[in-house]
Amino acid sequence: MFGHDLRSRSLISGAILSAVLGLAATPASADFSLYDQGGLKIDGAFTGGVTLFTSPGAQFGAGSWTNNGGVPGKRITGHGNWTETFLHPELKASYETENYGTFYGDVSGQFTMTGGSGEPSLISTTYGHPWMVELENLYGGWKSGKTLVGLGLDENGLDLSGGRQSFRVADGFLISNGTNNIGKRGMFWTQSRTAFAQTGVAKFSSGSVRGDVFYLKNNASNTVMLPSMYENAQTSVVGGNIELFGNADAEEGKAAKDGAANYADRKWYGGATVFRVASADSRGVYGFNNGIANSTVTNTLSSARDGMTVFSFHVGGNPLPFLPDFSLYGNAVKETNNTHNAKVDANAYYIEPGYQLSDVLWTPKLSYRYAHFSGDKNPNDDKKEAYDPFFYNAITRGFGTWFIGEIVGNYVISNSNVNIHQLTFTVNPRDDLKLSVLAFNYQYDAKSQLGTAVTSNDLAREIDVAAEWTISDNVLLSAAFGAAKAGRGYKQNVNANSSPAGLPMDKVWLLGETSLIIKF
């Protein structure tokens, strides 16, 4: 039950540096041209990075353990030091015709490797120096150009694509990552792989309206290091998304903003998403009525998916033109399933207002977020009420999204059965440097989901400092330092649901990370 921390990102070698340097968005892409003639364009691209981590007092003193059938086996270390490295070469091609739009394609691969002790989840998924070479993108598509302008669509207002590619809705709260970066893939914090194994996507745009119709199938865990209850079930979904948006203000000397294609180019947006799970792995702990205790299934994040319907509403950016320094982000999700073998009634939401003093030195900004992810108050009945976070990812809007906290958000929780208060303060001493302080308070939503021995909702508290330094358009250096303290409820949970019991959990867990990303 403590193992639901399975995707993540965090920590350094040089904890002092962590407080001063940083990352939270990748550098601007700068593809290099290989061929451009007669409408045919071929570009190359490369992204690579290395991150160094240190984690004194891991798991609040309990340390990180190997897997032994779902419970800690052998203790790896209480002070982890490790690295994550990835290389991502990419080849892109497009052919623009005069009357028939533009045809395009993309192929890329990744080499990934984790060194040292591996990430410090209670059951570590990346110990043992895993590495992998794997295909990332392999997709093709067609953009309509001016062929459908007479029907009310924008230029390139219809974009059809299919294959192995990334796909994101809003700020990634529900859909942004098609790959489970654990085990042999080894990118627990970096989350460098995001492509879905199979996609079919139709994107429409007309003025300030953008719509998507999509089919997505995820890349399940590529590992033999974990029991299936901790992996992300193989899942196929079919759905749609509709959004209203406003373009951000144009910047002198730069290309016009294109909010229909890029969330970063939007001043504000609001929309709704619905999808149905067409198929999902329902074997073993992934489904009810399978000879396994329902409480075990409830504590498996991606169980009971087959036949599920998911509704989502989201907003983001600055929706008030008369208050330009105000921002508001939010998302609400409802999950239901009433198929013969699975019943689900779960929900999640967050609300995040913020205000920036744009006329004050260093443009300080303060924001508050409350995030709720439902838990299961009666884990032994035939209905799952614990929220399934599906395909969320990190770094869409900086530190804290959607791995909420560099320690707890990465190595303790997985955005289910938890309520989180978050306060974030940022300043920008220079245009290329952002400094942040983030504070978190975590409470279980339903302590009863974890068994009768857990009598407290108090999960943990954490504070992080981070920095993001864009050295150039192609180079980004980041670092963070965090400190966390376990709450009474988390101690009870681990000691009641692990073997051996009685693990010490009274230390302050420190975490440091520094990351260098190069992209061209």
Structure description:
This protein has helices spanning 15-18, 294-298, 408-411, 488-496, and strands spanning 32-37, 40-56, 64-68, 71-77, 79-96, 102-116, 131-143, 158-165, 196-206, 209-217, 235-247, 266-280, 309-317, 326-339, 342-356, 365-373, 418-430, 433-443, 458-470, 475-486, 509-519. The chain is mainly beta and 520 residues long. The chain has one domain: Porin (Beta Barrel), CATH 2.40.160.100. The strands form two sheets. It has an 18-stranded antiparallel beta barrel. Strands 3-4 form a two-stranded antiparallel sheet.
Please tag this protein with its features.
4% helix, 21 strands, 18-stranded antiparallel barrel, Porin, globular, 520 residues, 4 helices, two-stranded antiparallel ribbon, single chain, 47% strand, disordered N terminus, mainly beta
